[in-house]
Amino acid sequence: MTVIAPSPATHRLVPARLHGPALDIRGVTKVFTSGPGLAGRLRGKRAPSRRIVAVDDVSFSVERGEIFGILGPNGTGKSTLIRLVSTLLHPDTGTISVFGKDVVTDEAEVKRLINRVSVDPSFFKKLSPMENLMYGARMYGVDPAYARRTIVEILERLGIEGRSIWSPMEDMSRGMQQKVAIARAFLSAPILLLLDEPTTGLDPHSRREVQAFVREIRDLHDATIILCTHDMNEAETLCDRIAIVDHGRIVALDTAAALKDLVRSAEQPEPTLEDVFLQLTGRSIEEDIKEEELK
Amino acid sequence: MTLAAPIHELRASYAFVERNINLTKRYWGWEVVWVLYTIANSLAVVLIAQNVNAAVGATALSDLQVDQLVLFLAVGAIVWHYLAVVFETVSDMISWERWEGTIEYTFMAPVRRSTHMVGTALFSLVYGFIHTAVVLVVIVVVFDLNMGNADYLAASLVLLVGSVSLIGIGIMGATLPLLYPERGMQMTHVIQATLVLISGVYAVPKEMPEPLATLSVISPATYVIQGIRDALINGDSVADLWPTMLGLLAAGLVLIPVGVQVFSWGERHAKRTGRLKRSG
Fold first, then answer.
1. Residue A41: inside a domain
2. Residue A154 domain flag
3. Which of A18, A25, A83, B137 sits in a 20 to 30 Å window from B54, CA-based?
């Protein structure tokens, strides 16, 4: 197996000593409102017309080196939580810190420690994987010569080879684009890696490749990983602990085995994570996903 | 304080230059269309001057006066094209990233927003110069313009110094797509249209109707266009145009920090309200 060395250039920007838990979230709430619009305001309306509580008083802590799963259907606040940690949103209440650094007041320092792979791989579509990844590498302070060499190594490791590395991203399948997104995040050698449904839409083979790569990042590169998913198997296979999220709240948090113990009974001696989700939220995650897709 | 952070920011600014160069190369077909469109627009404006006598059906202006009018409008069209390219490249930096879907990735990266803007502005200057040079060559050849009197060094310096304040206004304009995902880009076009109206691109500012003449005084583009007309048509030197350049530099030194401050406020607001998300 090819093992990719972390970028020395990036590590110079990271503080030598990191204190505290990798991620500490205390009493965080995020509410989105949509206003009455310009016409409404001119008519004297002030109150918001729509109010959505995306994250509702969430607290948890993740230790260095953990793979921590956030399990829940679409639209339940997982991505909002990841955006809050990524410094892309500010919490309304509560605090979020990454190795003791607050995401709002120490934003610049937090950004050096993290990277994120979102459910929707976001790239300049006309640019090639090499051009897109060089853009990311330069922003993260990775030495350009090292980056050019490593980009080829990581992409080849993920099954993207030859001309594909130099062709526009728009010519690639969604699965291939997602692999490039993972390579881009890995290139900056994040200490905290945020994965927001990284395997959604991938074929089973690609999914296994990505899952193996995630383990490798944790085991060989001292990264802590937050993994959002609605895939029960993925959560159980990869995560040390799992938080089940429903309507913006954490309804249970523990190891997969301990979560199963919560619902184990004489009638259900060998419960699955799906059974746990069903019992704690009152509905099946598959139903939720289908419902969301129909909206 | 170590030098690592400033060096990182300086190097990171090149990320935006290189990315925009790559995008320009990849969208080369669009660049050709854009240059042809600009040339056609500029030629149309200059043709108005060349055909002024035919249009009014009399010899209203002598040949010399027609040549002066041709030069006046040609310089206005070319300089405005340059300023518009610089303004658009800076003000569209957010709209472009929203359209591509990369805005969250860029905003999550460990670079200061000023670094992002410096990189974008540097690219806009080079891109604007090259684009404008092509248009200038075509207009000079087609209309056989007499530029024998021109002081190109003075004109270039006025253009360069004047770009700084346009970059400042562009940064303020870029805040609009940040705050209004659906219509922010159109709003920046309103700023651009206002600048072209009040800055004496195709008219003498003091001869414009009263409200426009008053507004022209506060537009830096007015002084850039006038300064370049003085350099290219009247042959004014760097020494002659020094006060204009000093004023433009002062305006730029005020407008850029103000622009960055306005943008920072917009970014904080976007992060509170969730407007960085692509769909808004």
1. no
2. yes
3. B137
Comparing alpha-carbon positions, the chain B residue that sits nearest to A181 is B105
- pTM for this structure? 0.87
Nearest to A141 among B8, B100, B102 (CB): B8
Residue type, B200: G
CB pair distance less than 8 Å for B26 and A126: yes
Q: Which domain does A31 fall in, by range?
A: 8-14+21-36+46-294
Report residue B181 as tokens. 């995902």
pLDDT per residue of chain B (280 residues) written in tens, 0 to 9: 567 777 878 888 999 999 999 999 999 999 999 999 999 999 999 898 888 888 877 777 888 888 889 999 999 999 999 999 999 898 888 888 988 889 999 999 999 998 999 999 999 999 999 999 999 899 888 888 878 888 999 999 999 999 999 999 999 999 999 988 888 888 899 998 999 999 999 999 989 999 999 999 999 999 999 999 999 999 999 999 999 999 999 999 999 999 999 999 999 999 999 988 754 3
In a domain, A175, yes or no: yes
**Chain B: nearest CA to A181, how far in angstroms?**
10
Name residues 73-102 of chain B within 8 A of A (Cβ): 100-102
Query: d(Cα B52, Cα B224) in Å, to the nearest integer?
Result: 26
Q: Do residues A135 and B26 lie in contact, with contact meaning Cβ atoms separated by under 8 Å?
A: no
How close does chain B come to A237, measured CA to CA in Å? 28
Domains contained in chain A, number: 1
Q: Which amino acid is at B6?
A: P
Domain containing residue A73: CATH number: 3.40.50.300
DSSP annotation of A5: P
Distance CA B156, CA A15 (A): 45
Nearest-Cα distance to chain B for A61, in Å, is: 22
ipTM for the complex shown: 0.87
